[in-house]
Specification:
The chain contains 14 helices and 12 strands. The protein is α/β, with parallel strands linked by helices and 358 residues long. The protein has a 6-stranded parallel beta sheet with strand order 2-1-3-4-5-6. Strands 9-8-7-10-11-12 form a 6-stranded parallel beta sheet, with helices on both faces.
Length: 358
């Protein structure tokens, strides 16, 4: 019997880079099943009880994988599957599985990157504090029982090595898919300034909205998650006449917006890759990003875009520069596409198949 492919992911409500990646795999490779804790059906059934509270949502996802997938669901024990895990919680439900491959987008930051910084605050709630320690040890135990870890970037790999010290599985790097490469596209003279980011604290959208407010003569696009509607400032954001806000747009609509854009603004903090950056490069669009995570290494200040400090004064200065030199930066991207750490969907699938022996 031939091996079959199973994808294990946490949720499909807010579509970000990790979700797009699994959808590309699902579209390009014939898979047997996608396993997720939260999808349209479960969200519809439980949203009034559970999903309006982020802590309860995370607890539900944790219990779904750790308890249900490990011990209560016999289907989980089948041995003739290649199991691809593309999020952090699902790997906790992998105890009795064989042929396990983890596509690592990032470490669970709350338990690793931010743990020391927030340790005093965590200790004020001892239940939460001990749960985080337990989760951290469980994550390390689980990940070291995998057959292979595929990292999305060298930055992510180094971050894992920093905190895990010893990594038992085989490792490699395959950059995530960014769609089709549109070599002929150029920045539009008075096009949109585009940002595609989920509405979370780490996406740092507060500075993006400050740019919208300052540059009233520019047209801005934000493609984000529906939870922005819960923000206390949502009514204010809607009043910006030079800003259009969209939610979880289909691929064709995003492609249309990209082709009408001048450049992109990426304000995310501590990003291990940033799928939006790769998507911008695929349209030869330069990027204004903040100096955090992998973004500065990908953008290369003054070559494919501009890297700014995370303050509005420097962002405004770099915004003016990228607007002035967008065509020069775009040609730099076009001439160096093979050197940039991105993959078209086709190349990604080709490399992934090779790594998972399909």
């Amino acid at each position: 019997m031939k091996n079959k492919l199973l994808i294990h992911h946490d949720q499909y409500i807010n579509i970000g880079g990790a979700e797009k990646l699994t959808l590309v795999i699902k579209k390009k490779i014939k898979i047997f099943k996608t396993i997720s804790a939260i999808n349209k059906k479960t969200n519809q059934n439980l949203r009034f009880f559970l999903f309006n509270h982020s802590l309860l949502q995370n607890l539900y996802v944790f219990l779904y994988f750790f308890t249900y997938r490990n011990f209560l669901n016999l289907f989980n024990f089948k041995k003739n599957y290649i199991n691809i895990f593309s999020a952090n919680y699902p790997i906790l439900g992998s105890f009795f599985l064989k042929n396990k491959i983890f596509y690592a987008n990032h470490l669970p930051k709350f338990a690793f990157d931010f743990f020391k910084k927030n340790e005093k605050r965590y200790k004020k709630n001892l239940i939460k504090y001990f749960f985080l320690i337990f989760y951290k040890k469980l994550f390390i135990f689980s990940i070291n029982r995998f057959d292979k870890i595929i990292f999305n970037s060298q930055y992510t790999k180094k971050n894992f090595e920093k905190y895990l010290k010893k990594i038992n599985p085989k490792t490699c790097i395959v950059h995530p898919p960014c769609g089709t490469i549109h070599k002929k596209n150029l920045p539009k003279k008075n096009g949109y300034i585009i940002n595609i980011s989920r509405y979370t604290k780490e996406k740092n959208l507060v500075v993006f909205f400050k740019l919208v407010k300052i540059f009233k003569n520019k047209k801005f696009i934000l493609v984000t998650s529906p939870n922005i509607k819960k923000s206390k400032n949502y009514d204010l954001y809607k009043k910006f006449k030079n800003l259009k806000i969209f939610y979880n747009l289909p691929k064709k609509k995003i492609a249309s917006l990209m082709k009408k854009s001048s450049f992109g603004v990426f304000t995310g903090l501590h990003e291990d890759y940033g799928m939006f950056l790769a998507e911008l490069f695929s349209y030869s669009l330069p990027i204004l990003c903040v100096n955090s995570g992998f973004a500065p290494f990908l953008v290369k200040n003054k070559f494919y875009g501009y890297v700014s400090r995370n303050n509005i004064q420097d962002l405004v200065k770099k915004f003016k520069l990228i607007d002035k030199y967008k065509y020069k930066l775009s040609f730099n991207i076009k001439n160096n596409l093979e050197k940039i750490d991105i993959n078209s969907d086709q190349n990604f699938i080709k490399k992934l198949k090779k790594e998972i022996n399909l």
